[in-house]
Amino acid sequence: MVRHAEFAISLSAATCGRERQDRGMAQRIDLNCDLGEELDAWVPGVDGLDAQLLDVVSSANVACGFHAGDTRIMAAVCRAAAERGVAIGAHVSYLDREHFGRRFLDVPADVLRDQVAQQIAALQEIALREGTRVAYVKPHGALYNAVVRHDAQAQAVVDAIEHLPVVGLPGSAVLDAAAAKGLRAVREAFADRGYRPDGTLVPRSEPGALVTGADEVAARVVRIAVEGMVRAVDGTDVRVPAESVCVHSDTPGAAALAVSVRAALAGAGVDVSPFVGAV
Questions:
Q1: Distance of alpha carbon 213 from alpha carbon 257, whole angstroms
Q2: Which of 22, 171, 195, 279 could make an S-S bridge to 7, C-beta 3.0–4.6 Å?
Q3: Whole-prediction pTM value?
Q4: Are 89 and 137 in contact (CB under 8 A)?
Q5: Distance from first CA to last CA of the chain, Å, rounded?
Q6: How many domains does the chain fold into?
Q7: 5: nearest Cα among 146, 159, 109, 193
């Protein structure tokens, strides 16, 4: 079953009162990035893109092999994240390396559940060896977009998760299913992606899907953190309350964008730290 989701949801901010939360304001926010997606070869001694981003972000969504990555890269990202105190999340996907997990697949719920569980378990085993742990789960690409409104796939993803927080779009089916199961539902916004007026993301095939100007991206993230608002592609303001904001590693100039975002948040008095607490 596919449903229409409502996206106006209040921001959770640990340091603010409930009324302040409802206005979407935060003094702390998590900055996450999709890593281990083979954009960085992780050559020893080379400060590659993933390593540069790990110096800036507070949470790393690690590809688990289904859309990108392999055990060597997963281990390298986990090791580097552990050294920096960056939280690790399982970036679970459809089994679709050919299309980088960016096409919808009509996977039976039981198969999708098992695939998601397999990815989490694989990353957890590697993370523990590297001195860290999987702290949350975030769907990738087409699966992320599908579980905004696709109830069956959203439930399948949640059924694969025993106790970890789930990251998703505000108002999405996957966050509703996570909350119903007693899991922490973590609302996320995007620094470098365009928004539709309904709070969903502009498809990558359409104009306005990416935002790449450093100043614009930084200003957007500050507004998301402080006001819980973002400007949609049609010029309207959209509520996007979030505990975490994502910068994609494959967005042009990703490392510079992340640095600009972090500096702008600091300038606005917003602390950047993992939403899961101590790592």
A1: 8
A2: 171
A3: 0.89
A4: yes
A5: 37
A6: 1
A7: 146
